[in-house]
């Protein structure tokens, strides 16, 4: 990965909005959805440290601060400009572009939202291994990605300027990478089934979690 996102940092939200149809624009909802899901899964765990791997502008970190008020938050990203913008919003978070500054810590939770599809295919195993090495022995790793089976998601992905050189991953690919990195799958499911016009149906989403038609999916991992 490179710091190519520097050129998109100032206009990230506008570019993202431009690639998403008006009826589906819920960026804050999507960000909070992931963190809320993670919080539900970790409701019985003691989470003192969280690493947002590929944190970008810090949108998820904002919600992590709300859902995990007692946790120390860290953000890693290769785009210095993105981190500068994130720091203005979240000055209490430790943000860095340098792996050496986070590699000495063992995190109770690692969070990666729509990051791995930006990592070149030949580098994904190493990225997964690196996350394994940062995870505490009883830690949890939540990885969210776009669902290639969903035609609307695929269309948005193809229209998005900063996804032009990216390649979507199927859930099975993430699970295979995890196995190579000696991580075990604790849970996985498809998510985000209903747009905002059908928000009244979102309570049924847990019952649909096995259907590969959600806009995204997540995989929860732990050390094997």
Written account of the structure:
The chain has about 220 residues and is an alpha/beta fold. It has one domain (about 5-224): 3-Layer(aba) Sandwich (Rossmann fold), CATH 3.40.50.150. The chain contains 7 helices and 7 strands, in the order ααβαβαββαβααββ. The chain has helices spanning about 10-20, 25-40, 60-65, 80-90, 125-135, 150-160, 170-180; strands at about 50-55, 70-75, 95, 105-115, 135-145, 185-190, 215-224. It is globular and about 40 Å long. The model is unreliable at about 15-20 (pLDDT under 50).
Q: Number of helix segments?
A: 7
| Biggest pleated-sheet summary | 7 strands, mixed
CATH structural fold name: Rossmann fold
Kindly provide the radius of gyration, computed on alpha-carbon positions and rounded to a whole number of angstroms. Answer: 16 Å
Please indicate the percent range of residues in DSSP E strands (runs of 2 or more). Answer: 15-25%
CATH class, anyone? Alpha Beta
The CATH architecture classification is 3-Layer(aba) Sandwich
- Low-confidence segments, given as residue ranges, are 15-21
Tell me the count of domains. 1
Average pLDDT over all residues: 89
Q: Major sheet: order of its strands? A: 3-2-1-4-5-7-6
**For the terminal residues, how far apart are their CA atoms?**
27 Å
The computed structural class is alpha/beta
């Amino acid at each position: 990965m490179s710091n190519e996102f520097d050129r998109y940092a100032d206009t990230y939200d506008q570019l993202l909005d431009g690639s998403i149809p008006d009826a589906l624009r819920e960026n804050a909802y999507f960000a909070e959805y992931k963190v809320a899901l993670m919080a539900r899964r970790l409701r019985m765990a003691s989470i003192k440290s969280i690493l947002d791997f590929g944190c970008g502008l810090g949108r998820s970190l904002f919600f992590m601060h709300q859902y995990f008020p007692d946790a120390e938050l860290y953000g890693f990203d290769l785009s210095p400009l993105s981190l500068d913008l994130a720091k203005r919003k979240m000055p209490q978070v430790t943000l860095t572009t340098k792996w050496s500054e986070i590699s000495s810590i063992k995190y109770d939770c690692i969070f990666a939202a729509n990051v791995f599809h930006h990592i070149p295919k030949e580098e994904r195993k190493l990225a997964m291994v690196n996350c394994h090495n940062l995870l505490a022995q009883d830690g949890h790793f939540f990885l969210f990605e776009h669902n290639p089976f969903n035609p609307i998601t695929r269309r948005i992905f193809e229209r998005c300027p900063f996804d032009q050189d990216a390649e979507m991953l199927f859930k099975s690919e993430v699970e295979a990478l995890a196995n190579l990195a000696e991580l075990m799958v604790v849970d996985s499911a498809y998510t985000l089934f209903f747009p905002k016009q059908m928000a009244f149906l979102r309570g049924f989403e847990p019952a649909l979690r096995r259907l590969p038609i959600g806009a995204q999916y997540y995989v929860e991992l732990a050390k094997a």
